[in-house]
Amino acid sequence: MNYFFAHLFEELHLPIRNPVLIFSLLLLIILLSPILLRKLRVPSIIVLIISGVIIGPDGIGLIGERTMDSEGSVKLFSTIGLLYIMFIAGLELDMNEFKKYLNKSIVFGALTFFIPIILGYPICRYGLGLNETASWLTASMFATHTLVAYPIASKYGLTKKTAVAIAVGGTILTDTSVLILLAVISGTAKGEVDMSFWVRLITSLVFFSLIMFLIIPRVTKWFFKKLETDSTSQYIYVLSVVFFSAFLAEVAGVEHIIGAFVAGLVLNRLIPHNSVLMNRIEFIGNSLFIPFFLIYVGMVVDYKVLINGSWALIIAGVLTTFAIASKWLAAFTTQKIFGMLAAERQLIFGLSTAHAAATLAVIMVGFDNQILDINIVNATILLILITCMTASFATENAGKRYLLEGIETEQVESIRLRDQHLLVELNELKGNENLLDFSVMISNPKVVNPISVATILPNDEEAEIKIHKARKSLDEIIKHLSAGETKVNAIATIDHNISSGIARLSKELFADAVLINDENNLNIIKRLVGDDREHLLDVCDRTVFFCKLDKPNKRYEGIDVVAPKFSDLETSFSSWAERIIRFSKEINQPIDLFCSSVVAEKWILLAKQLRITAKTKVHEIDDPEDYFLMRENNPNTLCVYCVPRKGSVSYGPGMENVISRMQKLNLDQDHILIYPAQRVIENMTVNYDGFNSGSINKGVEKIQQLTKEVGNLFKVEQKNNKEDH
User: Whole-prediction pTM value?
Assistant: First the structure.
């Protein structure tokens, strides 16, 4: 017993040196510090830095300098965290929105890069008395910004605004420029900047770019294809790409953080932003690696310098003032150039004024290379605190101003969000992983509770036993979806038949759409005992997606969407079209739209209103069946076919042929049959003295169908003649 306590007190002797104890202590801080200071509304990034200050060598001394040097465990984890920050920064940027507003983003990016540097250099050089290299590096820190206030813009429904897109695009350009400038400044500090330095740098960067933008994407696609079901291996692969890219960047003669940032840009299009893999990347980074780096930054800070002397406070005040002023001036100039509103200027300023990730990266690189002293580091920490708070307040006020002034508000969207709920009918996880991933990707992330997964069992003697088994299966399904942080309702219920159960639940849950795994090449789910597709459509008036998704979403090379004439007049057109547009963006694949010109206009207008950037190529056709004559055989193309219900405004003769033709032509091709929602109208057929109008209608449809088949034969013959010539 005495030995135990003696050994315990020895291990607890300050500073702590046991790596296991250090690791557990840091995890405890990561857990508790945000919880304790949450009520003070202090950003978590600042909370973790302050925690590092407290436990560091210049605080109470829980962790000494030995564990912080290049050989220490804390230093190792902080380096990983720094790389992770830069990787996520590149990964989360919306490249589609960047391309959409490229010109405006270039202008703002140039302004928010050059104005801070032009103002910052003379202030640092002549005002603060820093040497030339330190002045350039500190001034470049002014140019960086982190989208800390982006969640606030999202809360007010402003993420698709032009001002937000410009701010995001400017972030890409200015942070990339700062990182390149950092490489030059580091080389200057080492006395290596001459003609040979530039030749080596340019040559190395060319080879680095070729590897990153040509080889890595191809290898990644191949790897994801080979191990498409192994999510753990996919994450390990992504992590290896990040650190290998960081290594290549160092070999190329630039900082490793540039490699991590470029890795994020390269993998940006290959990892859907609303996917399980993406959420796993963010979760591990935000819960482990990044907090370690932030705590390490706090350990470096010497708060005594701020207390005992006024010089550090003067530096902090000067740096903070000019950092904020330069960002406001960049936003103001952008407003005047493009004739933007005051609320838009304030929004750009709010999003671009926060200094966090990239700022810390630049300063810590400068400190490690002995370009900057501890005064600049301490001042930067205060700058981060003040600018993050300023950014939050400015963005909050801009959001309120948008709402009060009614500037392109998202009221229509907020109304639509309340009506979006997806019901997925499944009995087990195995074989349905792709369908579940698809359901997540077509759901709007703004919807609080977007998905319900239901297992419907027949009401027989074994119902109780079956429902217990079903609930265990649902637990596996929830576990699968929880990796993507998607909120899901799980329901196991009993009904007389599956179709009736689906219809009942869709009404009880106010679902706008139902997803069903279309097994066995378009035969309605085998468990529908005594039911068929037609019966389900008769009793369920919601939009129904019959999905055959054998391939993971990463395998698709395009999406074919076929919509009949007048489908835009159906009440649910916007609902199902939005989900397909959203899916196209998530997997970053183009849409080939086969429809009439009117439907195409409505589709493109909807995408514009939603502010969802998805590539769409229109192929005008008068008859939906013309698609089968125009299509190019590609097993990696997902076919989405809108099949109107009988009695709907877009229903025409021969629609029932769609299923049989897809059976013949799409045996190996994934597809989705969408039956748009329709209001249930009883007694659709009218009886006149023994004559049933439904029978007459069927006879007319048969004649029309026969006429179409004859016409299709001529079309096929014409197509073959063209190919022969």
Answer: 0.59
